[in-house]
Amino acid sequence: MSIQNFGALPDGDHVLRATISGHGLTVSVLTLGASVQDIRLEGVDHPLVLGFPTLEPYLGEGRYFGALVGRYANRIAGGRARLGGETLDLDRNQDGRHMLHGGSDGTGTRNWMLTTQQADMVGLADHLPAGHMGFPGAMLIRATYQILPGPSLQLTVLATSNELTFCNFAQHSYFNLDGAPTIAEHRLRIPAQTYLPINKDLIPLGAPAVVKGTHLDFRRATRLGERLDGPVIDHNMCLSETRSLHMRPVATLAAGDVTLDICSTEPGLQVYTAAHLSGGAEGLGGRPYGRYAGIALESQIWPDAPNHPHFPSAELKPGQIYRQVTAMRFRRDGS
Q1: Using one digit for the tens of pLDDT, what is the confidence trace for 285-302?
Q2: Among this protein's residues, is 298 annotated catalytic?
Q3: What pLDDT is recorded for position 334?
Q4: Rounded mean pLDDT, 263-270
Q5: Residue in 98, 101, 132, 172 annotated catalytic
Q6: CATH classification of 2-332, choosing from 2.70.98.10, 3.30.565.10, 2.60.120.330, 3.40.50.620?
Q7: Which residues contact 176 (CB under 8 A, 6 or more apart)?
């Protein structure tokens, strides 16, 4: 474990970078957003996630890169939701109309506290006061990144609140496994039979629809280059109707001789092919990230669940413990 000063925020608070290693995997995590900044696999000469070598891009074009977003990941339509018989008025940080990733001061933009430091593990914590971004309940969040045999990077998120509230976190790394300018040669498999159709604001329209016959059918490994010229992919894949106590496979991504297997306790997987990227600051590979430079595979509760009673519940009761576990196993051909 090594800890470095990664730079200072506009308010003078310092961002730290913790680097952990084990089993042939090396991972760097920033206190800003509890963000995975870099992942390196032994024998591979390029990073496996999009990230930046300096702090400044994370305050602009790199917002959410690798971050742990919440207290409600993804979108809540109109920034409004019913909870406990009351209507919540939430921060509307998406075009002034909808809430995205917990609001303008969501956990993906906050500077977390570094709590645990070991050679192969780093722990972080954040505290959200009652009323933060419009949500009731003071919330304590703890996140642990640990490298396990495989090698696998396992993320465990624990959260508690002193009032009834909503809780939904997602790890927002953009993966690129072959170091190419785009993910066109990546092959993606997701064992989802249904997905959530969305409107122009990326808000779910209602009930899930079957993936068969659509550009979102990844039940068999599919080369992404075949799908990038079609409709933008930024959808929730419906893996189950409830959260699980145990992890289950949610996605396999492969490119070159590297394969990523993701398992999670969460009932949904948001898939986004980074169509908005247009190049700016140099990334970890020494070049700006253009369109389709990476793919986000975000394990989470379904978007806008507070406004859809038939979606998996995102309610967290007082004293109840929210627990998400998501594991990212990296392997090379033959390993």
Answers
A1: 899 999 999 999 999 999
A2: yes
A3: 61
A4: 98
A5: 172
A6: 2.70.98.10
A7: 47, 48, 49, 50, 183, 186, 255, 293, 294, 295
